[in-house]
Amino acid sequence: MKPVLYIVTIEVAPGSEDAWHAWHEKVHVPEVIRQPGFLACRKWKDTINAEDGWARYVCHYELASAEALQRYTASDAAKQLKAESEKRFGYVTRHHRQIYEEVSRYEIDTEPEGSDE
Q1: Cα separation, 80 vs 76, whole angstroms
Q2: Which of 10, 15, 32, 113, CA to CA, is 20 to 30 A from 54?
Q3: Does residue 106 lie within any of the structural domains?
Q4: What pLDDT sits at residue 5?
């Protein structure tokens, strides 16, 4: 099975960013990555706000497989997490979700070629 990258882009309204960010870091992301099949999450912040001033964040959730993501999205846990997010911050956030399947993996060789020490 190939790993997948579940990318969630979140834009947050001015004046709501601090409260959303605290909740997202302390509650939401830990609850999501505790779900079966999740391996890790990396969160990024765009260095430039959206044209309307909203801050933009991107979460890269790594999952073991597309099947794991399918099980998650169909689960009661996913529905509850989404409902909680909408209830708390639905009026001050915009979401966009994408799913990518790994095609290739490249890593940097840490041993210089010809180093036989």
Answers
A1: 6
A2: 32
A3: no
A4: 97
Q: Is 115 left (phi over 0), alpha (psi -120 to 50) or beta?
A: beta
Range of the domain at 36: 4-101
Integer Rg of the chain from CA: 17
Q: What is the CATH number of the domain that holds 80?
A: 3.30.70.100
Using a 10 angstrom Cβ sphere, with 0-12 exposed, 13-18 middle and 19 or more buried, the burial of residue 78 is middle
Name the domain count of the chain. Answer: 1
Task: Identify the pLDDT of residue 20.
Answer: 97
Beta strands in the chain (DSSP E): 4-12, 38-45, 55-63, 93-101
Instruction: Give CA–CA dist 57/79, Å, rounded.
Output: 21
Residue at 10 is within a domain: yes
- With respect to residue 31, please indicate whether it lies within any of the assigned structural domains: yes
Evaluate whether residue 110 is within a structural domain: no
Residues of the chain with pLDDT under 70: 110-117
CA distances from 16 to 23, 25, 38 (A): 11, 14, 28
- Cβ distance 96 to 12 under 8 Å? no
